[in-house]
Amino acid sequence: MDVVLDGVNKIYPGGQHAVHDLRLRIEDGELFVLLGPSGCGKSTVLRMIAGLEELTSGDLWLGGSVANGLSPRDRNVAMVFQNGALYPHRSVRGNMMFPLEITRGDPDEARSKVRELARALGLDSMLDRLPGTLSGGQRQRVAMGRALIREPALFLMDEPLSSLDAGLRAELRVEIAALVRATGATTVYVTHDQVEAMTMADRIAVLREGVLEDVGTPEQIYHDPATVFVAAFLSSPPINLLRATAWAVQDQGVVLDMGSQHLTLPWDDPRASALISHHGAPVTIGVRADALTQATSEPTGQELIGHVRTLEFHGHEWLAYAEAGIPSVDPAEFTQRPIQPPTPVQPSRIRALFGRSTPEPEPEPERTGHHRRTDLIFRITTGPRPARGDDVRLAVDLERLLVFDSKGRRVDPVAR
Ligand SMILES: Nc1ncnc2c1ncn2[C@@H]1O[C@H](COP(=O)(O)OP(=O)(O)OP(=O)(O)O)[C@@H](O)[C@H]1O
């Protein structure tokens, strides 16, 4: 069953605008993850799809028909919550059988279905046990079994693994993904855990403050994120977010001026042409730790210089933290809503840098953030390792440089 949310808003009675004009299409059979920090509106979206919460405006389509007014039981959906509540006095078998008893199907058929599903969930040896004697992970499997037994067309899961420890979560997420894919049911899975989202999803929608920031496959939203927030949210180690001003310079390209350091995007780079309209404006540069490598060859001018402050051993790699004197950007500064008031810019800056005149820049919006200077994080997997206190030259993989505008949106179009 496909699910379409068309301009959906949810305003709670207290006035909390939890979901803003959400437009999403979830394909039939897809494992679709709603990802975002606590309070971003994920559960609200899920509950509206389930019919547990009314839409304030907009339309919900299920399997090609408008379902706004449809009662939960007429939607052919099953839901699993964080603590899938089980009937404590019924065995595992009794719990899983329960939905079939309500529909009064053939008991023999029901029993064989329970056995089959219990095998798939690794519960076949515990069918006669009571929930109180099971581990948290086993209880969640039973809750899933109970939801899946009715063979719903749409399976909704709200942080089903969040109460489990890390090891069990990693194990169960693989099993859940395999199981729901095998059933062919469309699945909408809510989590705030980016690893869970990346490893399980066919596609991910990233929500923040009730606004859809981005939607795409895990690779798309990782390599080609639409906003600073998405780039930062999906990055481990944290992505380097550097504050710069873009200057279009005739014979060179677009210079990304970070104060004491700069990088240049040549004119044949598609991002350079997208940046012309940002001439003189603040931009945010996103560089992941693995897009920086210690340079050993002759300087190319496309490097950043840093002073190594700390090294961390992570088993398969080292992470180094280097002071580079570049103001960093906090992704929390950007929201996709309020408009920042403009303040004038000093054109003298470009003249000081390049000693030439250029077109008048557009007014620079006020920078709301503080001017933190944190370290550049870079990854070392092979080759010589710098020592603490060393000065390093870091070659920047310009292909992987992400450039965001003053509202935190990518300056170049994302491919979807
Ligand atoms: N019944 C309610 N009445 C009023 N406000 C609510 C209600 N339920 C949720 N909200 C508010 O709506 C916003 C979104 O909540 P929601 O539970 O959908 O977020 P979430 O992303 O699922 O968060 P979490 O991961 O913490 O569960 C929050 O600000 C929350 O306080």
From TrEMBL:
Region annotation (Disordered) ranges: 355-374
Limits of the ABC transporter domain: 3-234
Domain of life of the source: Bacteria
Alphabetical list of PANTHER family matching this protein: MALTODEXTRIN IMPORT ATP-BINDING PROTEIN MSMX, OSMOPROTECTIVE COMPOUNDS UPTAKE ATP-BINDING PROTEIN GGTA
Cellular compartments per GO CC: ATP-binding cassette (ABC) transporter complex, substrate-binding subunit-containing
Family matches, as Pfam families: ABC_tran (PF00005)
UniProt keywords, alphabetically: ATP-binding, Nucleotide-binding, Transport
Name of the featured protein: ATP-binding cassette domain-containing protein
Single GO MF descriptor: ABC-type transporter activity
